[in-house]
Amino acid sequence: MVRLLKGKSINKVSHLVFRVLKIQELFTRIIEVNNPDKMPCIYAMWHAHQFCIHGINNREKLHVLVSRSRDGEIIADVVERWGFKTVRGSKGKKGAVEATMQMISILKSGENCAMMVDGPKGPAKVVKDGVIKIAKMAGVPIVPVYWYSKNFTFAKFPSWDEMRCPILGTNLINLYGEPVYVPQDGDEEEARLKLQQSLEELEKKAPEAFDEVYKFGVWKRQK
Question: Would you list the domain boundaries of the chain?
Fold first, then answer.
């Protein structure tokens, strides 16, 4: 249905989505765990966890890569209304190159970027090499992020990526891994596998990290 929308219809839908998410924001509590606070860096996450950018600080200095699809038009508008910046290449074969060059320029200027490293069409939870090439060319680390909650209100959508989104009251963590560096003379495939492993390890560690945050009553103090 989204692909049938054009012009003003896209603006209306993005405004509606933003208003719904702003209401949800009142019921969503996100705690960062082990953010290394590297700047500049590339925050790397699964496509299913794209909403985790909401828990990252300094959003005015965070640029999010968004595709040029119809869906992307809505996502980009919502992301910008939230206070983030977006990176978008033109449509067609040259778009990826343009977006890559934009991100490299942004990173070299000292600001951060965020990428869904298995997007835009999957396969899910398989790191593609684009983030590795950009990190190498810009000379910045990649910081893995995993979004997690044990609350039953952390909903899973029936999409190819099984996107996760909080519905009503939800406590969440953004769990960060150690930065992955890509040396100029380093093996790109080795770095890609290292990032893949890091994200998989975060998935295993997330339940225990969530319990630790819950034990110390951080969410309770924030209410």
Answer: 2-214
In which order are the strands placed within the sheet that holds 42-45?
Answer: 28-33, 170-176, 142-148, 42-45, 112-116, 62-65, 85-87
* DSSP calls for 81-141: HTT-EEE-PPSSTHHHHHHHHHHHHHHHTT-EEEEETTTTT--TT---SHHHHHHHHHT--
Q: Give the pLDDT mean for 44-69.
A: 91
- Nearest-5° Cα angle at 83, 117 to 14: 80
For 66: left if phi > 0, alpha if psi spans -120 to 50, otherwise beta; the answer is: beta
Question: Any idea what DSSP says for residue 12?
Answer: H
pLDDT at residue 97 in the model:
87
- Give the N- to C-terminal CA distance of the chain in Å, as an integer: 38
Distance CA 199, CA 82 (A): 26
Distances in Å between the Cα of 65 and the Cα atoms of 3, 9, 34, 211, 217 are 20, 23, 23, 32, 34
DSSP code for 61: G
Identify any residues that bridge with 37 across adjacent strands, giving them in sequence order: none
Question: Are 14 and 73 contacting, i.e. CB atoms less than 8 angstroms apart?
Answer: yes
Average pLDDT on 78-96 reads 82
